[in-house]
What does this fold into?
Amino acid sequence: MLIESQEDVTTAVLAGLEGTPDARIREILQSLVRHLHGFIRETRLTEREFQQAVGHVIALGQKTTASHNEVMLACGTLGVSNLVALLNNGQGGTRPTQANNLGPFWREAAPHCKDGESLLRSPVAGPPLFFKGRVLDTEGRPVAGVEVDVWHSTPEGLYENQDPTQAEMNLRGVFTTLAEGTFSFRSVRPAGYPVPLDGPTGALIRATGRHNLRPAHLHFLLYKPGYKTIASQVYPADDPHLETDSQYGVTKALVVDYALHEDGPAPAPDVTGPWYSIAFDFTIEAGDARRPRAPITAKAMAA
Ligand SMILES: [Fe+2]
It folds into this structure.
């Protein structure tokens, strides 16, 4: 069609997509165009703002490296990551779920660990943490043989991929649930951390006047054929940023009490001071097991 008005542009593009052979791709593209054009009309986007938006998308890509995923960070900052996680789990977004966004820091091929092993591969100062997890199906029955990836930041708030002083794969490990669906590991209690502000996502956060902190959390990825793979995060109930998470990740289903043990025997003889423990159950649904594409593939090198 020959375009005569601004309205005609949308009609023409939608018609142009009609011949897309794959029905799902056609549905996604037509919906994207309807919403994108609607957004431009609603905001009366100016030419200057359009050029700024193009520059922003370019910067997202240019900031992304093997050890940093700025695009995933931006998706979290706009709530997109967690919306996708909640919509696709908990029986299609109708029930609470332990699924949560994967975040930008999962790496494939972390070392496989024996039950109870430590995640520390180089020294990390901080209060000892002993985590006991259980994986159940939707009927409450234990699921054995689930591969559970665990990863988290140091109490200084850095993942090993961001920090050349940490050993390769520090604070990362893969555990396998035992007959009763249990797994356990030792680590140190993580702290909350600021998401990086030195890229376009930082500019976005600054423009909104929000803080860039995440509450402390442990990351999990649960995989077993026959069950829908879920990423998850577990947050401590006493964190001050649960309701203002810069990545909009915290859900009620994922807030736990860290039990503080001031005295009494710790689960390991080398622990002399206070230590923490967590007990947490994950539920997984029947479905397709598929590991996500890793948002990063390498560790940052020393400058
Ligand atoms: Fe994280």
Q: What stands out?
A: The longest helix spans residues 23-43.
